[in-house]
Specification:
The chain is an alpha+beta fold and 471 residues long. Helix content is 52%, strand content 18%. Strand 9 and strand 10 (186-193) form a beta hairpin. Helix 1 (2-24) packs antiparallel against helix 11 and helix 10 (387-419) packs antiparallel against helix 11 (423-454). The two termini are 26 Å apart.
Length: 471
């Protein structure tokens, strides 16, 4: 009895305490577009587009969406051979969403005119035209004019750079690949330029080479979507008369795994800085915050009604055992909500309307598990077992049945998640998580709770007892 009680208290502490801790930390579940409103954009690539280019395009879109700021968790999925579906929860500005994902963007190589350490430019608060008064950065970046742009270099303080008009654009880059020099153990990006780009690059690097080492004007800013991606300095060996000629250059990144990753990322930016695919916007769907809230309230109401009906049925048919089921459902719900809240923060898991549906369906699965066990107990009592013996002897065969049924549900959830797209994935994920929880709760909560109940007055005394339910 004592051992069971301690185990039960631990389970309850994990469930209810875990939910309380998650809520106290502000880790409420992240809501999808259909529950909080937002914008969905369907993009279609031209026929025959290389699938690799579409994958690269989705990576670039992800980077762009990060700059929007109020997107809780963007969902970008490739659907079919050439369609990309982008869901932006919290973004109701249709034009802003389209600009974030649909525009091709511009990659440019620009001379650095000056640089200041920090993330606020020297023109902040001056009222200068086209300069944000708070940040001191250019508002509408024009690659053909000077601009103040932010450069956030990993491992170094941020800088605000004053850059000149673009000398080269993304079209001037023929190829860029990460390379490793085994002699110096240094990672770099090997850059090949087009014929016209080679001449412009030679002139750009010659001008930069005329400035002393350490001068920010010796750097070349590589800019994408209004942000400085990297700003390498021209090597001391480069002549200010000729610059880097021949259409080939190498950007040194450094040593180690981080440098390797930086080289890979920069090569992708240089090859596909602008979207490598000219997507056509096939559809734009807006879901208002009011409609999203209504959907969430409807889902909660449906769940509450379902729980109320399940509670009544359990109390009528199983008497005191119904109390175990009711407490067990609170344990189930607490752990599931805590998981959605924590995983939303850690890996960006989003709760959608389909996910809410999966949770509601899973309540039925959990209720079935209790019914299987409770019916087995009633059969044992009718067969002459004492209440505590009926509970102990009934669990093993009941658990085998529960495990078999839940395994089928789990396989279905895995197949749905693997093969389906869009909202069906949210349903499958919620169903899969709930199914695993059902198995764990049956093993670690239900068995202990029923065993304790069987040894009290609610086990064998009166019409509301376990014995009373078996008559």
């Amino acid at each position: 009895m004592t051992r069971r009680l301690v185990g039960l208290i631990i389970v309850l502490a994990i469930a209810w305490g875990g939910l309380a801790a998650v809520m106290a930390a502000g880790l409420t579940p992240r809501l999808g577009l259909d529950l909080q409103g937002g914008t969905a954009v369907v993009l279609t690539a031209p026929e025959g587009t290389d699938p690799e280019l579409i994958e690269v395009a989705t990576e670039i879109m992800n980077r762009r969406i990060e700059d929007i700021g109020d997107v809780q968790e963007p969902d970008i999925q490739i659907s079919g051979d050439r369609t990309v579906v982008v869901q932006l929860p919290g973004v109701e500005d249709e034009q802003r969403a389209i600009e974030a994902v649909g525009q091709t963007g511009l990659l440019s190589f620009r001379p650095v005119l000056s640089a200041v350490v920090g993330d606020i430019g020297p023109l902040a608060g001056t009222g200068t035209e086209n300069i944000d008064d708070t940040t001191g950065l250019s508002i509408n970046e024009d690659i053909h004019a000077e601009a103040w742009l932010l450069y956030e270099n990993v491992g170094a303080p941020p800088q605000v750079m004053n850059v000149g008009p673009a000398a080269l654009e993304g079209d001037d880059v023929a190829d860029a690949v990460p390379v490793f020099d085994p002699n110096s153990a240094v990672w770099a990006v090997s850059l090949n330029l087009t014929g016209e780009g080679a001449d412009e690059f030679a002139q750009l690097t010659a001008e930069a080479a005329s400035f002393p080492i350490g001068d920010p004007r010796r750097q070349i800013a590589i800019v994408l979507d209004g942000a400085v991606v990297t700003s390498p300095a021209v090597n001391p060996s480069v002549s200010p008369e000729t610059g880097i000629s021949g259409g080939r250059a190498q950007i040194t990144m450094g040593q180690g795994e981080e440098a390797q990753q930086e080289a890979n990322d920069l090569a992708v930016v240089l090859r596909y800085g602008s979207l490598p695919v000219a997507f056509e916007i096939s559809a734009v769907t807006k879901v208002s915050g009011t409609l999203g809230a209504d959907s969430l309230q409807a889902g909660i109401l449906a769940g509450a009604i379902g729980l109320a009906l399940v509670t009544i049925i359990f109390l009528v048919f199983y008497r005191s055992l119904g109390l175990v089921a009711i407490v067990g459902l609170t344990v189930f719900g607490s752990i599931l909500m805590a998981l959605f809240g924590a995983l939303g923060e850690w890996i960006g898991l989003t709760l959608t309307l389909a996910g809410v549906t999966g949770i509601i369906v899973s309540v039925g699965i959990t209720a079935d598990s209790y019914i299987v066990y409770f019916e087995r107990i009633k059969e044992n009592i009718r067969g002459g077992y004492e209440v505590d013996e009926a509970a102990n002897e009934g669990f093993s065969p009941a658990f085998r049945t529960i495990l078999t049924a839940d395994t089928v549900s789990l396989i279905s959830a895995v197949l749905l998640y693997t093969l389906a797209v869009g909202a069906v994935k949210g349903f499958a994920l919620a169903l899969g998580m709930a199914t695993v929880l059902d198995i764990l709760i049956a093993r670690f909560f239900t068995k202990r709770a029923v065993g304790i109940l069987a040894e009290t007055r609610l086990g064998s005394g009166g019409r509301f007892s376990i014995a009373g339910a078996a008559k």
